[in-house]
Amino acid sequence: QTQVVESGGGSVEAGVSLRLSCVVSGYRYDDNYWAWFGQTPGKERAGVAAVDPDGNTNYADSVKGRFTISKGDNKNTVYLQMNSLKPEDTAMYFCATDPWGPFRRGGDTWWTLFGYNYWGQGTQVTVSS
After folding, report:
1. Using one digit for the tens of pLDDT, what is the confidence trace for 100-125?
2. Would you say 93 and 58 are in contact if contact means Cβ atoms under 8 Å apart?
3. 98 bridge partner residues
4. 49, 86, 91, 101: which could join 38 in a potential S-S bond, CB 3.0 to 4.6 Å?
């Protein structure tokens, strides 16, 4: 059974950094699309950062220059380095992965939710001013 587990969230002050980790297990695919989404209460899950099997990345405008998505040395881990955190970054962060990705599954953006079949339970990031 495939499991996606995020870690690394926490409560921090504005300006500091956090690194989120995402590990997938029970997964037979080696080359995957990965994405991080953020969600706040009452709002839809929104794309934050994504990386494709070739290493191409995409970021939400609000995090460009501050967040970096990267893949681990093994093929089942991805990270989100979050620098210069702001209170508006506060959200539950979800990791998602898929061997086909959002475009091959019929989506038209990196942030198409149905483009990722495997999701974690989320890790909370709270940034205070």
Report:
1. 999 999 999 999 999 999 999 999 99
2. no
3. 33
4. 91
Total H helices, total E strands in the chain: 1, 11
Is the pLDDT assigned to residue 35 strictly greater than 90? yes
Cα–Cα dist 124/17, whole Å: 14
Strand partners, 119: 96
What the block records as the tokens of 102 is 């959002």
Strand, helix or coil at 87? helix
Band of pLDDT at residue 30, cut at 50, 70 and 90? confident
What is d(CA 36, CA 94) in angstroms, rounded to the nearest whole number? 6
Residue type, 126: T
Backbone angles phi, psi at 103, to 5 degrees: -75, -40
> Tokens 């198409």 identify what position?
112
End-to-end CA distance of the chain: 40
